[in-house]
């Protein structure tokens, strides 16, 4: 799903909330009218008074006086209605529209800008898209334990603590101009866990995120390029270039062809040129990246990315040994 479709879906969901809230208010009103006929009379008197006061005014002063009188009559009717409701065991606000978001009344806009509820809905949509191949609930900075690095030499432990702190600060302060990150190190050292922890926070901020293994993403790009994609599939390459944050996991494990090497360079080069942040996770060393992809990609990555070098022993394996039936994603 591209960014425009994601925004449209978020807007439709919030509009649906508003419609539901208004429909429920209408149902409550009809219920009260049936049970408490006096409320119908209160509403009728208020409408008649307002209609009389809305007759053409003689001048601006008369118009202002009439508007003030309408406000007073409305307030009087509101207090009378609340008294009747409370006298019969209903909450005073029973006939109000109960919007999900009290800041924007389920419009998605607050003070001319996107309301927080809209941003949160974008995050939920992004998480739903990721849920087909990863469960964000298994990850998070609060689930990342430095205990698994305690056997490292003191300096190495401090290095991993700095990496954790950097990733958390990166997520908390993420914006469209954030730098790209290259996470290097052997399997099971925490690269995937920390990158998904970043993804979780960034999604909650309302940014669009694409996360997947480099191999799967490149396979989709190749299928679409050569016309082998199934009907209805979208332009994956454009989405990879346009999303706010791209996370390429397991970089270097994909099947290498002239097409995939060219596609990788295009993605990395164009995103770096556009200053769009990426997170690239790889088990490869500098020499292995250079051998597999050439000097062009290496020079671009190491000149433009924050390089995080993970060290330690395979934590994923240790977790499996300690709790074979527990969560072991790292």
What is the element layout, followed by pairings?
Elements: H1 3-35, H2 37-53, H3 60-87, E1 109-110, E2 113-114, H4 116-130, H5 154-172, E3 180-184, H6 191-204, E4 209-213, H7 214-225, H8 236-242, E5 245-251, H9 258-273, E6 278-282, H10 286-293, H11 295-304, E7 305-309, H12 315-322
Parallel strand pairs: 3-6, 3-7, 4-5, 5-6
Antiparallel strand pairs: 1-2
Structural domains: how many: 2
Number of helices: 12
The rounded distance between the terminal residues' Cα atoms is: 26 Å
Class of the largest domain in CATH? Alpha Beta
Give the CATH superfamily of the largest domain: P-loop containing nucleotide triphosphate hydrolases
Helices and strands, in order, run as HHHEEHHEHEHHEHEHHEH
Shape: elongated
Spans where pLDDT lies below 50 across 5 or more residues: 324-330
CATH A-level architecture of the largest domain: 3-Layer(aba) Sandwich
Task: Report helical residue fraction.
Answer: 55-70%
> What is the number of E strands?
7
Placed side by side, the strands forming the largest sheet appear as: 4-5-6-3-7
